Amino acid sequence: MNALKKTSLAQCRYDAPCSSQVPCHSYIRSPPILSSSIGQALHRVQPKVRAFIPALHYTQTASFAALVLRHRQSTRMVNLVEAQKPLLHFLVRLAGLRQHTVDVDGAGTELTFWVPKDKVPKDKSTVREITPEAAAGKTSKAPAAERPAVVLVHGFAAEGIVTWQFQAGVLAKHYDVYIPDLLYFGGSTSPSADRSPGFQAECLAAALGKLGVERCTVVGFSYGGMVAFKMAEARPDLVRSLVVSGSVVAMTDSISEITLERIGVKSSAELLLPDSVKGLKALLSIATHRNLWFPERLYRDYLQVMFTNRKERAELLEGLVVSNKDATVPVLPQKILLLWGENDNIFNIELAKTMKEQLGEKTMLQSIDKAGHLVHLERPCVYNRLLKEFLAYANPEAPNKE
Q1: pLDDT 10s per residue in the chain (402 long)?
Q2: Whole-angstrom Cα distance, residue 225 to residue 154?
Q3: Per the omega criterion (within 30 degrees of 0), is the bond before 17 cis?
Q4: Quick check: 191 and 197 in contact, CB under 8 A?
Q5: Measured between alpha carbons, how far is 391 from 175 in angstroms, rounded to an integer?
Q6: Which of 249, 194, 243 is closest to 221 using CA atoms?
Q7: How far apart are the first and last CA of the chain?
Q8: Please, which residues have CB within 8 angstroms of residue 281's CB and are 6 or more apart in sequence?
Q9: Whole-angstrom Cα distance, residue 149 to residue 98?
Q10: Helix (H) or strand (E) holding 382
Q11: Beta strands 97-103 and 176-180: pairing type?
Q12: Omega before 31 cis (within 30°)?
């Protein structure tokens, strides 16, 4: 076997000057058999760690180098958006919510939800619990006193808990909060070919029924607002009041054409289903009042995580548009709050004012300045205050109102 040979500092090929008195190739076989990539990995570890390398047997050194390299490669491969989910889920669980999958119809249609932990259904034939408690065989505590239910329905660019991350914990203090993922978002799916918002509303109402919700306030954002309007129309017995942000009762031909022309895109899919960093940046620029900066990698990771089921979602967008002659404004008995970003570039404030007049005297409009389409994310404190005020007004029996 070749003897170990000591090299000089000048022979270290990977950086200059080396920050350690013991270069990364100080003890190597002659000829060197460590790969260039492993050598570089060794060189980048902390100097104090590198100082111990000469004392290691060669095989130990190679193993250590390979470990460092694998760590560096795995760090590069981590999806930053996906990596934040455990923290977000931890915070939501801390607020008292648990994740479940609801079997809507027994035929393959399932909706994933975040629900209050004390409202976990006991009927496991209709609800599949996917929380750590279920795996450990733990049971829920006895139900607490009834509190008004609030259902938060997300928009098109993110799943439920990501959309409502700034609202879930605040509302969960005094309300039973339910956060669904609509079909083809999160873990929700269906074999049905129906892509209409009416079908989304039907599935959501059925799932809420299986979760034991009899009356609720529905808060809908953007696409979720259209689903919320459909559910309020079809199930006034279930929906007692309604909060809508950045949405319309129905996406008519004329509203679609005017909106797309004003934004400067050819189709809804081009705007709402970006397939490139450039497209996602354009969507964010249109949806926010402020110009926000994020690193390129974060955009790429977000595209990978949040824009799955692209075929089905494109079909959802096609199913949104109805002809002007078929569009009608329903007579809704619920109390309604239109909570708008004053600088919404997608569904502007003028559209909200027109909708208020069409919906009648039970409808209120409140706008938040310096906020765009993503009003609940740009101005969460103001949004939450106005939302809680309306919930207290619509649910006078709610305990511990602030």
Answers
A1: 444 444 333 444 434 444 444 444 333 333 333 344 444 444 444 444 444 444 444 445 556 556 555 555 545 578 888 988 999 999 999 999 999 999 999 999 999 999 999 997 776 545 555 544 443 444 444 445 689 999 999 999 899 999 999 999 999 999 999 999 999 999 999 999 999 999 999 999 999 999 999 999 999 999 999 999 999 999 999 999 999 999 999 898 888 899 999 888 889 999 999 999 999 999 999 999 988 888 999 999 999 999 999 999 999 999 999 887 777 888 899 999 999 999 999 999 999 999 999 999 999 999 999 999 999 999 999 999 999 999 999 988 766 555
A2: 8
A3: yes
A4: no
A5: 9
A6: 243
A7: 78
A8: 299
A9: 15
A10: helix 380-394
A11: unpaired
A12: yes
Q: Tokens representing 324?
A: 């002007």
CB atoms within 10 A of CB 59: 8
pTM passes above 0.90: no
> 3-state DSSP: the chain helix, strand, coil percent, rounded to 5?
45, 15, 40
Q: What distance in Å separates the CA atoms of residue 203 and residue 316, rounded to the nearest whole number?
A: 14
Helix pair 296-306, 80-94: axis angle to 10 deg? 70
- Total residue count of the chain as it appears in this document: 402
In the block, which residue shows the tokens 């999958």? 101
Place of tokens 């306030």: 217
**What is the number of alpha carbons within 13 Å of residue 329 lying toward its C-beta?**
8
